[in-house]
Design brief:
The structure holds 2 protein chains of 2 kinds.
Chain A lengths: L1 E11 L4 E12 L4 E5 L6 H8 L7 E6 L2 E2 L5 H11 E4 L11 H11 L4 H14 L15 H13 L5 E5 L7 H16 L3 E5 L3 H4 L4 E6 L2 E7 L6 H5 L1
Parallel strand pairs in A: 3-8, 3-9, 6-7, 7-8
Antiparallel strand pairs in A: 1-2, 1-4, 4-5, 9-10
Helix pairs in contact in A: 3-5, 5-6
Chain B lengths: L1 H14 L1 H29 L11 E7 L6 E2 L4 H10 L3 E7 L4 E7 L2 E13 L1 H4 L4 E4 L10 E5 H8 L8 E4 L2 E9 L11 E3 L17 E6 L5 H24 L3 H8 L3 E6 H7 L16 H30 L3 H9 L4 H38 L8 H27 L3 H5 L10 H34 L9 E5 L8 H14 L3 E5 L3 E2 L3 E2 L1 E2 L2 E3 L2 E3 L2 E5 L3 H4 L4 E4 L13 E5 H7 L8 E8 L2 E11 L14 E5 H4 L6 E6 L4 H16 L8 E2 H6 L3 H34 L2 H9 L4 H35 L11 H26 L3 H7 L1
Parallel strand pairs in B: 5-10, 7-9, 20-25, 22-24
Antiparallel strand pairs in B: 1-2, 1-11, 1-12, 3-5, 3-11, 4-5, 4-8, 6-9, 7-10, 8-9, 13-26, 13-27, 14-26, 15-16, 17-20, 18-19, 21-24, 22-25, 23-24
The chains are: A alpha/beta, B alpha+beta.
Pfam families (chain B): FtsX (PF02687), MacB_PCD (PF12704)
InterPro entries (chain B): ABC3_permease_C, MacB_PCD, Macrolide_Exporter_MacB
Membrane topology (chain B): Multi-pass membrane protein
């Protein structure tokens, strides 16, 4: 689904040139659940942003669904983005002025989904995420966990090909964090492709594969053997 | 404390250089407008206020029953009888309601005397200009006396004592009795006041409304009872006598002919609120233009409101940025009052800057403004400075209090927790103010368009005559009885000049009507047509058409005896289907009774006065028929080729053969007529300039407000972009509400625009119909402007760096 080869990203200011990514090669297949870990400033967020088409690469190749993304203009990126990618952020990024329903509806609006279909889809996803009773509320009226579930609903409502999660549990307490992680695992089990950035080993253990980054390069990659850890779950 | 406030004020000023500048500029334009209006207002309202008798002096006007015309003039016997029979009247005086220009001689000096008034009785009782030298009483008692102004006396006599000196005016000698100081502004500011106005023949003529009559009454006299008594003088001496002559009772006579009604205008209100007379001008210095004054004051207040709204809008919008500061101040112990004081303090600094700026604007553009109003206004006087301080206070209160209270009400906790920058508080007020601004802008655009199209209409309307090539040359005749002879000689001589195509005359001028009007009754219908006393060939030269019958012609002897022409309006008023050969008993008579005239032609209606008036009924006779000799211009049709050469020849001829004393003057007839609507041309220009100002201020406001509210939405825009919003969709989303505001504002602006402009148009007998076109143009241009401003800003914000706002807010 995603093939990245020798991807580089250089930030230039007048005085300094900083390489945020230097030669990343990575492949994500359909149905993968991949975690990127690493210390602050290692480039993991930059990589996620490039994959999410929020940012552009300086060099190398990034193919999404066999289509080259490097060099694509903003307009083209916007089209690919809205059709294929769902985002989940650490700070939720919900629009405070819009109700939960309206927030979830946004991606459908931008993808020109018919009004009748929209209603159906929103209700279905809200049901699935257990926020049906909150649709008329505004984000500020919800708890953090509920807000993140709204954000997940918004990310999923348009059936994206890949879900990008940037520290999805970072602003949540462990109970709510767990809920979100279980939600992602559940989605993965149903066939969703997920790419997640996190600091938490615990969160990473939910995924299939973890890559570690440092100074703009991938220096290790391992498969997670997820053991059902009774004690951990009990925590 | 103040220093701390000042520091933070300076910090924000530097942070938002553009908006601060726009803010000050907007306010200063608004204040400058009000200063302009105040200067004009002060000037118009100080007319005659110097006059200690202003409340006891009245101008007498007469409303003529038959036609409803109001004349600012009276007859001599009426004034004299009133003085003799009404004890409240202390003194009366007569003068002509215009200034003369005459050659005046002293020893071997000769100059053109300007602002000359010829008066009689106690002129200096009604206008007690301080006497600097000479007699203080009975100045004009002798017919050969003259009083001159201090400035003029200095010019003529330098250091000599002018009293007792003899000056010559119109070949008559006058003795200088007094020197007075002209008080300004005054309804009359003469350089010379000559005595001996009254001609003996007029002394007992109740029909000659030739002179301006002023009366001075005892202090505390009731205007109402005075008017009653004067009306009674009129009734006894005029109406009853006329009725007797007609063999009717006074009641029958009044019913049939109406009666002359006396109107009194107190001097202290005469300039601005005086009765509108048919002549238009009641005093030599003219009449105050109340309409223009109201327009100026009204529009300047609107502009000030607009700029205040802008200020409030910007202040509340940018207050959000100050929320954290306010929160911290409150936590460390500031009270609400202190916060309010701080923000009012900031407004005060801005207003001081704006007033200084406004004064600079006014100072720089005052010459243009004076030129526009034809005045010489200056910025001084204690009254003006008091008004300035009042404006300062008013603007601070109006502009400062609302934002200050708004800011002081921020809830500390919410503010400190952050997230306040996307607060919705105050939005509806800003939006409704924006709508209000759109309303004002729509009003101005529509107003300017309608005024403009009326002016265009007037400029392009077919006048019924062609005056492009015809010039009007004033003719002064030493002997009125020989005027026709003199005219015919000049005509012959002028026709010999190359470039002169035709020469003719009539007693009147285009734009100012004819010189006389005489009423008569025909078939029971009373009419008061204007008399066109003209030379043969006059209609032809002016390309005025004859619709029925023929023009008067030297070929027919009876054309100088008993034939006349009438215009279409008169034919219609009299209900004449076939007017030709109808014989009418005219208003003119001799000892044998009224003269009878036969209609030989009907003249197509043409405009003799401005478009405010309908075309009056007219009769046309030859100058030779009644020999009134009351024409005072010669009309010369010149060839457009080598115009300068022709004019030079005319000038040489004139100065050599006709009058050595007077400079040669001429005016093109079409330009003379254009003066009838120069007031509207001015208003059009005024509207145009104000329109620019209003649009500029409104654009500032819209841009600033759109900027603030869009910048508040940056995070939302970033999220929407992340979710796939394309630029088009975002632009639509961001500008939608402004288009709605624009439409609502437009609807609000339409109503006053329609009503006020309709009222403005009512002054014109000939006017455009208000169509939808100005409204549509205004709507389209307003929408276009809005879209340009909003889309520019929106486009700018859609180009933001998404990542920055997703991460860091």
């Amino acid at each position: 689904m995603i093939t990245i080869q020798n991807l580089t990203k250089v930030f230039r200011t007048e005085e300094v040139e900083t390489a945020a990514l230097s030669g990343i090669t990575l492949e994500i297949k359909k149905g993968d659940f991949l975690t990127i870990m690493g210390p602050s400033g290692c480039g993991k967020s930059t990589l996620l942003n490039i994959i999410g088409l929020l940012d552009s690469a300086t060099g190398g190749s990034y193919k999404l669904l066999d289509q080259e993304m490097v060099g694509l203009k903003e307009k083209g990126r916007a089209v690919v983005r809205k059709e294929n990618i769902g985002f989940i952020f650490q700070n939720f990024n919900l629009i405070d002025e819009l109700s939960v329903y309206d927030n979830i509806e946004l991606p459908l609006l931008y993808n020109n989904v018919k009004a009748s279909d929209r209603k159906q889809k929103i209700e279905a996803i809200a049901e699935k995420l257990n926020i049906s009773h909150r649709l008329k509320h505004f984000p500020q009226q919800l708890s953090g966990g509920q807000q993140q579930r709204v954000a997940v609903a918004r990310a999923l409502v348009n059936d994206p090909k890949i879900i990008l999660a940037d520290e999805p549990t970072g602003n949540l307490d462990s109970k709510n964090g767990n809920e979100v992680m279980e939600l992602l695992t559940d989605l993965h089990a149903k066939g969703a492709t997920i790419l997640m950035v996190t600091h938490s080993d615990y969160d990473a253990s939910f995924s299939q594969r973890t890559i570690h980054m440092k100074d703009g390069v991938i220096f290790s990659e391992r498969l997670n053997q997820r053991n059902v850890d009774v004690f951990m779950d009990a925590k | 404390m103040i220093f701390n406030w000042f520091k933070i004020f300076i910090y924000h000023l530097k942070q938002n250089k553009l908006f601060s500048f726009l803010n000050v500029l907007g306010l200063s334009i608004g204040i400058a407008g009000v200063i302009f209006a105040i200067l004009y207002w002060n000037n118009e309202n100080t007319y005659d206020q110097w006059n200690p008798e202003k409340e006891n002096v009245y101008q007498v006007l007469n409303k003529i029953g038959a036609t409803g015309d109001i004349w600012p003039s009276s007859t001599i016997p009426f004034g004299v009888t009133c003085k003799a029979t009404i004890p409240e009247i202390e003194s009366i005086c007569f003068f002509d309601s215009w200034y003369y220009e005459e050659i005046i001689k002293y020893q071997n000096q000769k100059w053109m005397g300007k602002k000359i008034i010829v008066a009689d009785y106690d002129f200096f009782d009604a206008f007690p200009f301080p006497i600097v030298k000479g007699a203080k009483k009975d100045i004009l008692k002798e017919k050969n006396s003259v009083a001159i102004s201090e400035d003029e006396a200095k010019k003529i006599f330098k250091n000599e004592d002018p009293i007792g000196k003899i000056v010559i005016n119109d070949n008559k000698s006058y003795v200088i009795k007094s020197v007075y100081k002209v008080m300004s502004p005054s309804s009359i500011e003469p350089n010379y006041v000559f005595g001996g106005l009254l001609e003996d023949g007029d002394a007992n003529n109740w029909g000659n409304f030739n002179y301006t009559l002023m009366i001075k009454v005892r202090k505390g006299t009731s205007e109402e009872s005075l008017l009653k008594k004067m009306q009674n003088v009129n009734f006894v001496n005029r109406t009853m006598k006329d009725a007797k002559a007609n063999g009717q009772t006074p009641e029958e006579y009044v019913k049939e002919n109406g009666e002359v009604k006396v109107i009194l205008d107190p001097l202290d209100k005469a300039r601005l609120y005086g009765t509108k007379s048919t002549a238009g001008v009641n005093f030599p210095e003219g009449k105050g233009n109340l309409q223009l004054l109201y327009i100026m004051v009204g529009l300047s207040i609107l502009i000030l409101i607009l700029s205040l709204v802008n200020y409030i809008n910007l202040a509340t919008a940018s207050a959000v940025k100050r929320a954290k500061e306010v929160g911290v101040r409150k936590i460390v112990g500031a009270s609400k009052t202190q916060i309010i004081a701080q923000f009012i303090f900031e407004t005060a600094i801005i207003v001081v800057l704006a007033i200084l700026f406004a004064l600079a604007i006014v100072e720089l553009s005052l010459p243009y403004y004076n030129n526009f109003l034809r005045k010489s206004l200056t910025m001084n006087g204690s009254e003006f400075y008091l008004q300035l301080i009042f404006i300062f206070g008013l603007v601070i209160v109006l502009a400062g209090i609302f934002p200050a209270v708004y800011i002081s009400n921020f809830e500390t906790l919410k503010v400190l927790k952050g997230n306040f920058s996307r607060s919705k508080s105050g939005i509806w007020i800003r939006n409704s103010m924006l709508i209000f601004q759109f309303g004002i802008a729509a009003f101005f655009i529509i107003g300017a368009l309608i005024v403009n199209s009326q002016v265009n209409y007037m400029m392009n309307k077919d006048l019924g005559f062609t005056g492009d090539q015809v010039i009007k040359i004033p003719l002064k005749s030493p002997d009125r009885n020989k005027k026709i002879q003199q005219y015919l000689t000049i005509k012959q001589e002028l026709l010999k000049l190359s470039g002169v195509q035709d020469v003719s005359t009539f007693a009147g001028s285009f734009g100012n009507s004819t010189n006389s009007s005489s009423g008569f009754t025909y078939n029971g219908v009373f009419v008061q047509p204007r008399n066109v006393d003209m030379d043969f060939g006059f209609l032809d030269m002016m390309k005025i058409k004859i619709v029925k019958g023929r023009d008067l012609s030297p070929k027919y002897a009876s054309d100088t005896i008993s034939n006349w022409l009438i215009n279409e309006t008169l034919a219609k008023t009299l209900g004449l289907k076939n007017p030709i050969n109808t014989i009418i008993s005219s208003g003119w008579g001799n000892e044998k009774g009224n003269l009878k005239f036969k209609i030989v032609g009907v003249v197509k209606d043409f405009h003799i006065t401005g478009f405010q008036n309908k075309v009056p009924p007219m009769v046309f006779i030859s100058i030779k028929t009644l020999k009134w000799n009351n024409f005072d211009n010669i009309y010369v049709k010149v060839s457009p080729n080598n115009l300068t050469g022709t004019l030079d020849k005319l000038k040489t001829y004139w100065e050599k053969n006709i009058n050595q004393d007077y400079p040669f003057q001429y005016e093109f007839v079409n330009k003379g007529f254009a003066k009838t609507y120069q007031e509207q041309v001015k208003q059009k220009d005024l509207f145009f300039i104000l329109n620019l100002v209003v649009i500029i201020i409104a654009i500032f406001g819209l841009f600033a407000l759109a900027s603030f509210s869009m910048e508040r939405r940056l995070k939302e825009i970033a999220i929407r972009k992340t979710l796939g919003a394309e630029t088009d969709a975002l632009l639509k989303d961001l500008s939608k509400q402004y288009v709605v505001f624009c439409l609502i504002g437009f609807v609000i602006g339409i109503i006053p625009a329609y009503i006020l402009l309709q009222k403005w148009l009512e002054d014109f007998a000939f006017r455009i119909n208000v169509s939808v076109i100005p409204f549509s143009i205004a709507l389209i241009s307003l929408l276009a402007l809005t879209l340009i401003i909003v889309l520019t800003k929106a486009y700018q914000v859609t180009k933001i760096d998404i990542l920055k706002y997703l991460k860091y807010e």
